[in-house]
Specification:
With 302 residues, this protein is α/β, with parallel strands linked by helices. Helix content is 44%, strand content 15%. The protein contains twelve helices and nine strands. Helix 1 crosses helix 12 (278-300).
Length: 302
């Protein structure tokens, strides 16, 4: 695996391999076993969208793997001042062993791959959030034992999380049901992919319907970074798309709840439900570290 751009690019076998490696790296880290697979390697981290979890987890991950992570904000780089991404890709390829980028447009990530010569990891774009989905799948497997045959439901916006979860869950044998309002649905590319799975995929605008017999309930903020001007319209559109006690009563009694954070309590999820499932949610947050370390090893170890 040379790059990680989106979950759709990975085979089922590659996803499972990453999850297995993440489990192994987590075990070793918890037991004080060093694993300096990337000794002497440097990861450049480009942030055009800020994030606490992404920066800390990638920096910590590179340190634990024996390498070094270099933070590059859009304010500090020529990208933020108009340098063509194809030039940035070629320059950084001379200095670094890998690039992680968190940005708006998927095309920018693809351009780094096209013009650069080092591995590129998508830390988040408006289209896809592959590292988070690997952490989610890892967490689900920890709690449920396996992924095959489970039902995942997602309540909310057809954003990068819904897009990537639809693909990742279907590829690993889960059935997927999503609830989102008209006008906020996933892009055609994702829906065309899901259509291949027949009745394993279901989409509606009725949240209570998708929660029926769910093993995993997932939600995300209604307004993502860069959409702040749409907040009022989105709050109106997503009224009723809340993960609350009523919705959870439709799911299996042992259903787990995940949220990639930060959470807006009493908007997309109630404090009651969040706190009842806090262990799962913060295990999910921790697993970003372990899943991303697996991605770093597979792309950068050589």
């Amino acid at each position: 695996m040379k790059h990680l751009l989106k979950i759709m690019d990975l085979s089922t076998e590659e996803i499972i391999d990453l999850l297995n490696l993440a489990d192994q790296l987590k075990y070793e880290q918890k037991h004080g076993m060093e694993h300096h697979h990337l000794r002497g390697k440097t990861l450049g981290m480009i942030f055009e969208k800020s994030s606490t979890r992404t920066r800390v987890s990638f920096e910590t991950g590179m340190y634990q793997l024996g390498g070094h992570a270099l933070f590059i904000s859009s304010k500090d780089s020529q990208i933020g001042r108009g340098e063509a991404v194809q030039d940035t890709a070629r320059v950084l390829s001379r200095y670094l062993d890998g690039i992680m980028i968190r940005t708006f447009d998927q095309e920018e990530v693809e351009a780094l791959v096209e013009y650069g010569s080092i591995p590129v990891i998508n830390g988040l774009t408006d289209l896809a959030h592959p590292c988070q989905i690997l952490a989610d799948l890892m967490t689900i497997r920890e709690y449920k034992g396996s992924l095959e045959g489970l039902k995942m439901c997602f309540i909310g916006d057809g954003n990068n999380m819904m897009n990537s979860l639809i693909v990742g869950c279907l590829k690993t044998g889960m059935s997927v049901a999503v609830a989102c309002p008209e006008g906020y649905r996933p892009p055609k590319m994702v829906l065309d992919f899901a259509a291949q799975y027949g009745d394993k995929f279901f989409m509606t605008d009725k949240p209570l319907e998708v929660a029926v017999d769910a093993d995993v309930v997932i939600t995300d903020v209604w307004t993502s970074m860069g959409q702040e001007e749409e907040r009022a319209a989105r709050e109106a559109a997503f009224a009723g798309y809340q993960v609350n006690a009523e919705l959870m009563s439709k799911a299996h009694s042992d259903a787990m709840v995940l949220h990639c954070l930060p959470a807006h309590r009493e908007e997309e999820i109630t404090t009651e439900v969040f706190e009842a499932h806090a262990n799962e949610i913060f295990d999910e947050a921790e697993n970003r570290l372990h899943a991303q370390k697996a991605v770093l090893v597979r792309t950068m170890k050589g």
